[in-house]
Structure prediction request, 261 residues.
Amino acid sequence: MKKGKKLYEGKAKIIYATSDKNLVIQYFKDDATAFNNQKKSTIEGKGVLNNRISEHILSNLSQIGIKNHLVKRLNMREQVIKLVEIIPIEFIVRNVASGSITKRLGIEDGTVLKEPLVEYCFKNDELGDPLVAEEHIYTFDWASKKELEKIKKMILRINDFMIGMFRGIGIKLIDFKLEFGRIKINGKNEIILADEISPDTCRLWDSITDKKLDKDRFRKDLGDLIPAYTEVAKRLGILHEQSNISAVNVTKLSSIKRKRK
Prediction:
């Protein structure tokens, strides 16, 4: 599929047009950001791993009936996705208290919640993605009550599936972020899952050691982000344990070849 002009560039991805007005190409960057873009860096190979991990998770969610924007992975860094109208809300799903909620409410990090907690944040970097209530969503027409009810049901289904998937490979799903969008199907709007699901958007802890296998390694200057993401990919069966060429090495080799040309 031929890549057209750049339509949008975010903190971690770039969206390009294609010859099909209903499809776009999503490119995964190596940029790492935290604290609403106040902390920035470039970590070679991160985009490759997030592309593979997100493709794997979204493909599995499709198999259990969760419609999402993924069409197919094109290469190491790009996916073909459906063009959707993004609902301007980040849905934060928490199973264990960690991160901002511990500071806001004075809860001890690692506290297991009685049931999943869903929080809503208005997608606006300039405002710092502020926490909002359902009433805000209805008042400002970001989503209807019917749409939000459908989204909440999808969220609980996604959470149940992902908890089980990660538990099976020795990882605790602490929390994660989801985004949803509208797409026209037979002339009617339908809500589908969008964006990515990866260690950039999830908190993932090793089940035994509580070692962090997600972007907190960047946020908290713990180092070894690529080995942590690679570990998640290996456990998911995306990268083979005995592989002699890691995703990062492949990226470097590709870069060398391009320079030689």
